[in-house]
Amino acid sequence: MTDTAPDPTPLTFGWEEWVALPDLGLPAISAKVDTGARTSALHASDIETFGPSSKPKVRFNVHPIPGHYELAITCSAEIVDRREVTSSNGEAELRYVVRTPISVAGQTWPVEITLTDRSGMASRMLLGRQALQDHISITPTERHLQPLLDYDVYHSSKMRTIAPNRALRIAVLSREANYSTRRLVEEGEKRGHTVEVIDTTRCYMAINPMMPEVHYDGKRLPRYDAVIPRIGASITPYGTAVVRQFETIGTFVVNNSAGISASRDKLHAHQILSRYKIDMPTTAFAASPKDTSNLIGLVSSAPLIIKLLESTQGKGVVLAETKKAAESVISAFRGLKANFLVQQFVKEAAGEDIRCLVVGGKVVASMKRTGAEGDFRSNLHQGGSAASVRITRTERDMAVRAARAFGLGLAGVDLLRSENGPKVLEVNSSPGLEGIETVTKKNVVEKLYDEIEVNVRPRPARRRKGE
């Protein structure tokens, strides 16, 4: 004899009940029961579609508390149908239909819901016949026969632990179809999100106090849940302006514009490290050629490092073996009107550094990079090699502090191992992902999406005065 699951406890609904839509991030919503309607309806606003035509999704906002339009929960779900619905006043409307679980009194079952903007309605939701399963009976003269919920949940810290199972719409700002960009798309789509690659230089902005917008290819870009900037060094000023525009709109960005700008300017970056008391090689900067000798003296005796302020991937970095060689390089850079700094050479590092990838305040992977034979630079782009490495607690803490000092959610922090302990060499706001994933065999992009999903969860709403 085969065991069968027991039937659920019968429920009795009044004409109004409290329900939860957990996959939409709505823990409490008041619903009117209407047996005259076939399909349930959710009063939604800002309805927009996204994703591939083969598997389209819809994103929308719900104001769960009547009269409180400052509280908006952003939801998304797969579209299962598009249906013409005639309302009680006889008006026909073509609505998107989604399927999502509904929870009442510990019981959960799937329902189909149409989306419509009817903000004037007292109840945020209408429960139709399809949602009322066979074991549910209706007492139309009563209300709230099931457990009462409370709108207070939207003001509590519990909102941060509610993780709606919804697809996100994410933009990657990138001009290159390289490994890092491909992995960001691949991993996001694997998790059910829609990831769109946007060429940063083709974005343009409408800057105004009421409706700041970002446009692309002749159209206003849609609302994104998150933006992942991959801003190349050659377009830093314009790229950070685009990121700043998304910040103005209120979009969550993995790396903020100020952190990207500061990390690209080596002088500014070292000043930030200094402000937060993060150890680094001794560094000096001067504008006048009359100060060359004193500049060298501030750092140490030769050999020393001379760096262009906007150098990347080891380019524009010179090792001067003697004081005379240093003076010659400095003179040449000044002749080119280039901005540069002079830095202590950490000889004991022996052409090696440690790249720590920091995501959301945690080191998720690390590798040791070794320069090519005869080259003091350890950059992989300069022919260096890499291997996985275990880092110390001190190194881990220093990498996290450095990323936090710049406000970066994703950062590559480069450390040197000196006889006086680790020193931060550089903080990279657009670290390459191929080398570190290949060497460590770790899925670091997965960790980044974990962080994004946490940050786009609903936050507790502020209470109004007098509530």
From TrEMBL:
Q: Which GO terms describe its cellular component?
A: cytoplasm
Gene Ontology terms: biological process: SOS response; translation
What GO molecular function terms would the record report? ATP binding; metal ion binding; ribosomal S6-glutamic acid ligase activity
Q: What keywords tag this UniProt record?
A: ATP-binding, Ligase, Magnesium, Manganese, Metal-binding, Nucleotide-binding, Protein biosynthesis
Q: Which SUPFAM superfamilies match?
A: Acid proteases (SSF50630), Glutathione synthetase ATP-binding domain-like (SSF56059)
PROSITE patterns named among the record's database cross-references: ATP_GRASP
* The protein's name: Probable alpha-L-glutamate ligase
List the source organism. Marinibacterium profundimaris
